[in-house]
Automatic annotation (TrEMBL):
It comes from Halolamina salina. The keyword NADP applies. This is Zinc-binding dehydrogenase. The keyword NADP applies. Keywords: NADP.
């Protein structure tokens, strides 16, 4: 099984532990690189990052030898390294993905539905919005800190 190290605001650490994170670190920690390396015994094997535009170099710095970084969303069109030697020297593999590129979502959604049905997976809902508040939900996605999903209901 995986040992999960995650970053979040301190107010979410306890909930993340309840969800299975072994270590939750404050992403505003001035020594975050050292803290991740210590928590991961020297490097992270698999990194999921939804902010590669801000953390591309950080990911290279904390990745293990032959580690993999999966970019699940970026805001900047040209994220860049400040020192690409960190990634090259460890043979870090970068993979970029967009859910919209998946050819058929039925099979993975059936798997998610099954896990939810047997109680192995749950979805944290941070906030709900009425449809006429959709603009506020979009703003909050971009600007707020929250744990879970923001849901717009009709």
């Amino acid at each position: 099984s995986a040992r999960v190290v995650t970053t979040a605001a301190p107010e979410y650490h306890e909930v993340l532990a309840d969800l299975g994170a072994e270590t939750a670190l404050d992403y505003d920690n001035g020594d975050l690189t050292d803290a991740v390396l210590e928590a991961s015994d020297g490097g992270v094997d698999e990194i999921l990052d939804h902010r590669l535009d801000s953390y591309l170099q950080f990911d290279a710095d904390v990745a293990a030898q032959n580690g993999r970084v999966v970019g699940i969303g970026e805001n900047a069109p040209n994220p860049a390294f400040t020192n690409d030697g960190a990634a090259r020297s460890k043979d870090v593999n970068y993979q970029f993905m967009l859910l919209f590129n998946a050819p058929d979502l039925r099979e993975p959604l059936r798997g998610v539905g099954h896990l939810m049905g047997i109680g192995e997976l749950s979805i944290e809902i941070a906030r709900t919005y009425d449809l006429d508040e959709a603009d506020l939900a979009h703003r909050d996605v971009m600007e707020e800190s929250y744990l879970g999903k923001l849901v717009v209901t009709p």
